[in-house]
Design brief:
This is ABC transporter ATP-binding protein. The protein is an alpha/beta fold and about 240 residues long. It has a domain of about 60 residues: P-loop containing nucleotide triphosphate hydrolases (Rossmann fold), CATH 3.40.50.300. Helices cover about 40% and strands about 25% of the residues. It is built from 10 helices and 10 strands. The strands form 2 sheets. A 6-stranded mixed sheet has the order 6-7-8-3-9-10, sandwiched between helices. Strands 2-1-4-5 form a 4-stranded antiparallel sheet, with helices on one face. α7 links the parallel β7 and β8. α3 packs parallel to α6. The chain starts with a strand and ends with a helix. Bound molecules: adenosine-5'-triphosphate.
């Protein structure tokens, strides 16, 4: 059984059907990418999984449990954590306070401290900036805080929405490396990316979305060499 199973999911914004019946699965231990152009429905898919946006029909089953209608709070408690597009660090709060917000469902203070130390290992820069207002960090640093914050809820499944967006090349490389390290340490990852080449390179499997539908799926390596993907998303490279 897959860790996450999405079956014939449909999601609408008023009259606009953003997701027109998609099915996909994520197995434990995998990095799975969703690639596709702007407006394809990738963010909507993640927001529906995390309980922020309600589904119109279809089902989302996580670890054998139907979470299609579950609240965002209970979904976090079940082990799914999302890093939203645009990062959204909490302004007017220090980096440390931001990290603690990620742990709001937890009461185990000792383990929490250990997890914060682990976050510093992935993102050493965070430790130097703990008492700084998170909003004053650079884009790349804010991305790291947002990812560290998501890790503080000890997710089994991490949902990442465009983690490389707007980042300098050096930061992009670093973020992809860290995603791989987080995955190797046992966290399953569902990743949305415009940066298709890098996403496919680190992904076990991937799905291509076009206007609310999944049009292609395969291993990361298969899609990297697919003519269709190369033409549409890799600039014919
Ligand atoms: P992007 O990379 O640009 O975020 P995406 O693949 O993540 O694209 P979505 O953001 O999921 O796409 O959008 C899917 C469709 O739903 C688009 O047609 C978009 O205009 C529409 N949409 C998204 N959010 C809303 C909203 N709050 N109200 C109305 N329509 C929306």
């Amino acid at each position: 059984m897959a860790m996450l199973e999405i079956n014939d999911l449909k999601v609408s914004y008023g009259m606009i059907e953003a997701i027109k019946g998609i099915s996909l699965e994520v197995n434990q231990g995998e990095i799975v990418s969703l690639i596709g152009s702007n407006g394809a429905g990738k963010s909507t898919t993640l927001r529906t999984i995390s309980g922020i946006k309600p589904a119109k029909s279809g089902s989302i089953v996580y670890e054998g449990k139907d979470i299609t209608k579950a609240s965002a709070m209970s979904i976090v408690k079940d082990g799914i954590s999302q890093v939203p597009e645009g990062r959204h660090v909490f302004k007017g709060m220090t980096v440390k306070e931001n990290l603690m917000m990620g742990a709001f469902t937890r009461k185990d203070r000792d383990a929490l401290k250990a997890d914060m130390e682990k976050a510093f290992e992935y993102f050493p820069i965070i430790k130097e900036r703990l008492n700084q207002d998170a909003a004053t960090l650079s884009g790349g640093e804010q991305q790291m805080v947002a990812m560290a914050r998501a890790l503080m809820s000890q997710p089994k499944l991490l949902l990442l929405d465009e983690p490389s967006m707007g980042l300098a090349p050096l930061f992009i490389k670093q973020i992809f490396n860290i995603i791989q390290e987080i995955n190797e340490a046992g966290t399953t990852v569902l990743l949305i990316e415009q940066n298709a080449k890098q996403a496919l390179t680190i992904s076990h499997r991937a799905y291509v979305m076009e206007t609310g539908r999944i049009t292609l799926t395969g291993t990361g390596a298969e899609l990297l060499t697919s003519e269709k993907v190369q033409e549409a998303y890799l600039g014919g490279a």
